[in-house]
Design a protein that fits this description.
heterotrimer, A alpha/beta (337), B mainly alpha (340), C alpha+beta (381), B: 340 residues, mainly alpha, MetI-like fold, 74% helix, 1% strand, C: 381 residues, alpha+beta, two-stranded antiparallel ribbon, 11 helices, 8 strands, 68% helix, globular
Chain lengths: 337, 340, 381
Amino acid sequence: MKTLGLSLCALATVCVATSVRADTLADVKQRGYLKCGVSQGLPGFSTADKEGHWFGIDVDLCRAIAAAVLGDQSKVKYTPLSAKERFTALQSGEIDVLSRNTSYTLQRDASMGIDFAGVIYYDGQGFMLHKKLGVTSAAQLINASICINLGTTTELNVADFFRSQKIKYKLVTFEKNDEVVAAYDAGRCDVISSDQSGLYADRTKLKHPEDHVVLPEKISKEPLGPAVRHGDNRWGDIVRWTLFTMLEGEELEVGMNTMEAAEKSEKPAVRRIMGAEGELGKNLGLAPDFAKKILSQVGNYGEVFERNLGQSSPLKIDRGLNNLWSKGGLHYAMPFR
Amino acid sequence: MSVVNAKIGAKQSLLQKSINAVLLLILAGLLFPVFKWAIIDAQWAGTDRCTGDGACWVFIKLRLMTFMFGFYETEELWRPSLVLALWAIAIATLFRSTYSRGLKILPAVIVLLPLLSWGLLDGRWFGLPHVETTRWGGLLLSLMITLMGLSLAFPLGLLLALGRMSDLPLIKAGSVAFVELWRGVPLIAVLFMSSVMLPLVLPPGTELDKLIRVLVGVALFTSAYLAEVIRAGLRGVPSGQAEAAAALGLMGWQRLFLVVLPQALRSVIPSLVNSFISLFKDTSLVMIVGMFDLLGTVQQANTDPYWLGYSTEGYLFAGLVYWAMCFTLSRFSMKLEQAR
Amino acid sequence: MNKSPAKKWLIQGLFFLVLVAVFAFAGHNVSMQLKVRGISSGFDFLQNQAGFGIAFHLIPYSETSSLGRVFLVGAVNTLFVSIISIVFASVIGLIIALFRMSPLPVLRAIGATYVETLRNIPLLLQFFVWYFAVLRQLPMPLESWRIGKSIYLNIRGLYLPFPEDAAAVWMVIAALIVGLTLGHVARALARGQRVRSGRTPLWNWVPFTLPLLFPVLALLYLRSRVTFTVPYLEGFNYSGGAQIIPELIAAIAALSLYTASFIAEIIRGAVGAVSKHQTEAALALGLKPRQVLVQIIFPQAMGHILPPLTSQYLNLIKNSSLAAAIAFPELVLLFAGTSLNVSGQAVEIMMMTLGFYLVVSLCLSALINLYQARVLRYERR
C-alpha cells in the first residue's frame, strides 16, 4: 500500500495542474509563455530544425501572439500535434491556440468546441503527379490510386470531386505526411492529393522535384486559420487582431525592415498602429504598443509570407489569393480604429 | 512419422543424412546473395547517399545517435547515459543480491528510480538545462517507457492479483472486471484513448505531458497482465504455508507479506522477465501516437525524402537491436526457470 | 483470512464508494468539458453521412453511407483479416513445429531460427518490413506480372477473376460449412458404430470426404451459371475482378507469420509433454508411425494446446489493429481514425472501439471454454 501511495504522489507531482478559467489571456500572462499547437512538420507552415527551433508561417503567428500578449516573441512553447489530436488538445486546454494549417469549416466551427479566428492562408486542394504521365487535368485521373494524409478534409474533398465527376478512384490513407510521400515515391499510388501549398512543400523533398507537377486546378476551398477554444471571446479577439495587425502592417508598409521609417511617420494610421496615438491595445487588454511589438519582432504578413512560402523560400509559392485585397488577393484587415 | 522416430530417439538413416546435406546446400545458396548484399558489397564509409548495389550502412551510421537517444541535446547526453547506467546497476543488484534483500530494495527501485530518471532527463528538478519530453527518443525512450511503465504497473498489478483472490465478492468482481477489460482490448486503442480521450476525463485545464499520458495507458494495460502473472504465483504457494504461518500466530497482513507473497514473487520472476520482453516489444506502438521511440526514429529516417530507398537497412538495424535485447533476455528467463 | 462480517462489509462499502467517486469524477469532468467547450455528444453522429471513400470493404459501402456503417465496415474488415490470419498462422505454426521436431538437423535449425527470430522482433516492425520493404519491390501496373491467364500482380495489389454475383462465393462457403457439419455428424455415427460392433464400418472414410465433396458439387453446379469478371487495364490501374490490396497482403503476412512462431512453440511443448512411453507402447502394439502421431500423440497433446492457442488467437485479433499503421482500413483506422476526425466525438468513438474488441474477446473465450469442456469430457471417457 505504501508503495502505491508513494508512486501516486510521485505521479501527482509530475503532473502540473493548472486550472483553466474561461480566461486564456490571464492564464497566459500568469504562466509567462504561450502554448501553441503546430503541425508535426510541414515545410513553410511549421517545421523544427535539428536544434528544435520552429519555423514557418503558422509558427510566426504563434510568435506574433506571444509578442502581442507578453511582449516577447520567443515566449512560446510549441506542441507538435497530429491531425487527429489537434482538436482535443485545444478543447482540453493543453494548448492556448491551434495554429496548424487547419481548414475553417462549418462543422469544426460549430460542433467541435472551437472558434476560428480568421484565415492566414487561402489554400485549395490539388493533385501532384509525375510529369511523364502527361496528365494536365484532374478529370483525366481515371481509376488512379491516390495517396492522402489521414484525418483531414482531404479525403472528404477527394470523395466529393470524383463522385461529382463520376470517375473511379482508389484511396490509400496514411497517418503521417512523410509516409504519404514515401508511398508516392515507391509507386504505391499515381497521385498525391493535399492542400496545394503542402504539395509544393512535398515536391521540394523529392529527389527530382522538376519531374513532378502540381496540377493547377483546385478541387476545394481550404481557408487555413488559427483556432481558439469556443466561449473565450476575449482571447479569440486577440488572436484575430494579431492576424489583422500583420495584414494591416503590410498594407501600411510597416514591418521589421521599415521600422525606423514608421517610427518617424506622421500618418495617423501608422501612428495608431505604432501605439503613438489612440488606445487600441487597451480595448483588447493588451499594451498600447502591442501591434508595434508584433511588427518589429515578427514582421508584417508580406515579410512573413516571403520568408516562409514566397520566392526567398524553397517553396516559391506565388501570392495569388494570398495577396492583399488592394493587390488582387483576399486578405483584408478590418479597420484599426 | 519422423516426429515419432525422433521422439523415441531413433538413429538417422543414410537417406535422412543425404537429404540433410542437400537441404544445407540449398540453404547456403539462398543465403549467399543476402550475405553478399549485407557485407561484401556494402558501403560503410561516407557521409552522403550510397552509389553501389550493396547495403548502405552509411545511412545507419549517420543517424546512430538519433536511433539511440532521439533528439536529446548533444551536450547533455551524459544524462540519459547516466540514467541507463543507474537502471543497469539497480537491476544487476536486484538479481545478484540474496532474495530477501532483493525484496527489500525492490520498492525503492520501482519508486525512486523512475523519479530520479525523470528528474535527470527533464532536468528542471536538479537545476539542469530543461530538455522537453518531445526530444527524448530512440532506444532511450523505448527503454524508459518499458521500465517506468513496469514500475508503475507492478504495485497496481499486485493489488489486482490480491483483489482477484480476495474472499470479498465486490472487490473480487472489481478486480476481475478491471483485468479482463484491459486484457480484452488492443494496446494501440489504449494509446489512442490516452492521447485523445484522457484529456477530456481529467478536470478541465489539467495539463498532462504527452509522455505521461502514454505511460498511464501503458501502466494500466500492463498491470492487467502483471496481475495474472502474480496471481499464478500466488496460487502456486501451497496452502500449508499460510496455515503454518497462522498457527505461528501471524496476522492476516503479516501472513501475506512475510510468508505467501515472497514465495509467490520468487516463483514468477521468469514470467516477469517475459512480461518485460513483451512490453519492450510493444513500446514500438507509441510511434503510432507520434512519439519517436527506436522504431519511430527509424521509420522517420526511412521516410526522410532525401534518404528514400534505404528502408531495408533501417528495418534490419532496428530488428537487430530489438532481437538482440529480447533474445538475450528470453535466454536469461529460461535459465532462471531451469535454475529453480 | 478471517474477518468479521461487519468489517467485510465496511471494506467493500468503502471500495464501492471509491469506485463510484472515481466514475462520478470522470463523468462529471467529461460532461463539463463537453458543455463548456460546446462539443456535441451522444450517438446521433452515427447517422451522419461519412463522406469519405474506403479502399476495401466486404459489405456494401459508398461515400453516402453513415458513420455507423463505417463502424460495421471496419469491424467486418478486422474480423476478415483476423480469421484468414488465424488459419494461416495455425497451418504455418504446425509446419514449423514439425520442422522443430524433425530428425533432420537442418530442418530443426530452420525451425529454431524461425521461432527465435520472429517472436523476438516487434510485430509493428514486421508489418513495416512487409509493407514498406518487401511489397514495394513489386512492379508498376503497366509492367504487372501475369500469373496464368488473368491474374495480375503489381504494386497496387493482386487482381483475380471474380464471379459477377458475389452470392456464388457465399454458396461455396455455405457448401463447405454444410460439408463440415455433416462430416462431423457422420464421423460421430461411424465412431458409435465402431464402438458398438467393435469393427470399423466400411464407410469409415466417407465422413472425411464430405467437407470436400460439397464445395466441389457447388462449384460444378455454378460453373455453367456464373460469369466471371476478369481484371482489365482501365485508366491508371486494373479494374474488374477482385482486388486484394497490398495493405491486406502485408497485414496477413505479418500477423500469421508472427503468431505462427508462438503456435509452433505451443504445439512443440504439448507434443513434448506427451510421455515418450506412450509412443513406445503404441509402436510395440504394431501401430504405424502415422497412426501413432495422429491417434496417440495429437489427441493427448490437444488438451495442452487449446488454452494457450486460444490466447494466441485472441492476441492475433487484438494485434490486427496494428494494420492501421500500414493503411489497411480496419476498425481502428476507419473509426478511431477517420470517423473521429470527421465527427470529433472522441469519447463515444473510443468507447465503441474498445467495446468491440472486448465483446469479441469475451465471445471467443466463452466459445473455446465450451469446446474445451467437451474435449475434456471425451478425454476422461
